Amino acid sequence: MTRTQDAARQFLDLRRIAVTGVSRTAGGHGGNVVYQRLRETGYEVFAVNPNAEVVEGDPSWPDLRSIPGGVEAVVVATRPEHAAATVREAVELGVTHVWMHRSVDRGSVDDEATAFGRAHGLTVIDGGCPLMYGAPSDRAHRVMCRLLTLTGRVPRTV
């Protein structure tokens, strides 16, 4: 097992990151917040939403396969029932890292998708948020990380 903070560092060392579930109507949606912050901190980030051509003023892609040049990592910010399809696609495309976004609720975490990804060699972070670690983090997310780790919502290892 890998400590989550080490897996987070490896994830954030990658520069081409897709965020699934970025909404056309931002309104504080977790996927949009992650997308915006990664973009602001210098990542080459790609919005994935099969129902939108543009989100956050940028092109949106219907799936990972459609992103020109591919990606190295994926943040899953959809409902959990969509996570398995994203993880299967990531495996097919050779993506090495997947992060299933989770805050105080279940978020995007799907246990079967997590197991499938790990069985196929992916590093899967099944909880928490990329904004809790490294350069994209802010004080509120770091505090939330500590609290959610204590309650088990952010895994200690992956």
TrEMBL record:
> What SUPFAM superfamilies does the record tag this protein with?
NAD(P)-binding Rossmann-fold domains
List each copy of the CoA-binding domain by range.
11-102
Quote any Pfam family the record assigns.
Answer: CoA_binding_2
Extract the InterPro entries matched here.
CoA-bd (IPR003781), NAD(P)-bd_dom_sf (IPR036291)
Protein name as it appears in the record:
CoA-binding domain-containing protein
